[in-house]
Amino acid sequence: MAIYTSISTLQQTLSQKRASGAQIGFVPTMGALHEGHGSLVTQALAQNDVVVVSIFVNPTQFNNAQDLKKYPRPFEQDVAFLNAIDPEIVIFAPEAADLYGGAVQAKSYRFGAIESAMEGKHRPGHFDGVGTVLNLLFRAVTPTRAYFGEKDFQQLQIVRKLVALEQLPVEIIGCPIHRAENGLAMSSRNRRLTPQQLEAAPFIYKILKKTQDEFDSKSIPALVREAEAAFAANPMLDLEYFEIAATDNLQTAYRKHPSNTYRAFVAAFAGEVRLIDNMGLN
After folding, report:
1. What residues contact residue 173 under an 8 Å CB cut-off, 6+ apart?
2. 178-210 burial code (b ≥16 CB/10 A, e <16)
3. Cβ within 8 Å of residue 26, ≥6 positions away
4. Rounded to whole angstroms, what are the CA distances from 221 to 211, 215, 230?
5. Catalytic residue among 34, 37, 178, 257
6. pTM across the whole model
7. How far from 242 is each of 171, 224, 265, 272, CA to CA, in Å?
8. pLDDT tens-digit readout, 147-206
9. Residues 41, 43, 48, 49, Cα dihedral to 10°
10. Contact, 154 vs 113, CB < 8 A?
11. Is 37 labeled as catalytic in the residue annotation?
12. Is 69 exposed, middle or buried (0-12, 13-18, 19+ CB in 10 A)?
């Protein structure tokens, strides 16, 4: 399995493959890989000749220094995980100084209204960091297609906006949320949960599914109130937000319009571990 830490060496290899007509799929990750990542990689393998997976914990998208410090980095396990899927996968694991080309700092973007809602509201500067690192990674890899899970649905919409702003020739593919049998969305952060927290966390999915099931019969304010009350009664989870938003612009919705589609979004803490999830409602 080829592992590259240098942008120039990676580009030399990929340019040769591209010259022979190869299409390149790209799955950007921060490591601590799980079956959710595996589903993205599998789809990329099915649609491209070469697949690159980046493993890079990006410092500029963390607004909490302790969160960055505690983020899991099991690199050898990640390599073994990818090797078991396909030993021909190319791994790109750059150093921050090389990827950023000097000062490791985020560029300021204007993503519009989608950046000010939910995650943007609660994690100031987060999407500037995400946009900056993905712009750098896209330019290093120059993929045909890039794959992102819908668990970070707001981020997926930000990435699409980024590609338009930077005029990058890459197709962005959104992939369904990969869940455990109990409904818990796969996340690298799940590794930090205690056994008790891991048992409690599927409550997030339960509330999302209840909201989906009742969406046609109840108003949006009523659904939000019920979800908030359910979380308030759960001592294992501390709700940060529960919102229902229009899918296209991610602005908080208060009433339904027949022509719109909606999603429910949630962020909650299990101890110190912040978990997010979302679900389409109609």
Report:
1. 43, 47, 145, 146, 147, 148
2. bbbeebbbbbbbbebbeeebbebbbbbbebbee
3. 44, 51, 52, 53, 54, 137, 138, 141, 143, 145, 146, 147, 170
4. 11, 11, 14
5. 37
6. 0.94
7. 30, 7, 6, 18
8. 999 999 999 999 999 999 999 999 999 999 999 999 999 999 999 999 999 999 999 999
9. 60
10. no
11. yes
12. exposed
The tokens describing 78, both together, are 């990640």
Q: Which stretch of DSSP H or E encloses residue 76?
A: helix 75-85
**Which tens digits make up the pLDDT trace of 79-119?**
999 999 999 999 999 999 999 998 899 999 999 999 989 99
Dist. CA 114–CA 269, nearest whole Å: 23
Instruction: Return the H-helix or E-strand segment holding 129.
Output: helix 126-141
Q: What is the DSSP letter of 252?
A: B
Q: In the structure encoding, which two tokens stand for residue 228, read together?
A: 């908030």
Q: Which stretches of 90-161 are assigned E, i.e. beta strand?
A: 90-92, 145-149
Burial of 251 (0-12, 13-18, 19+ CB in 10 A): middle
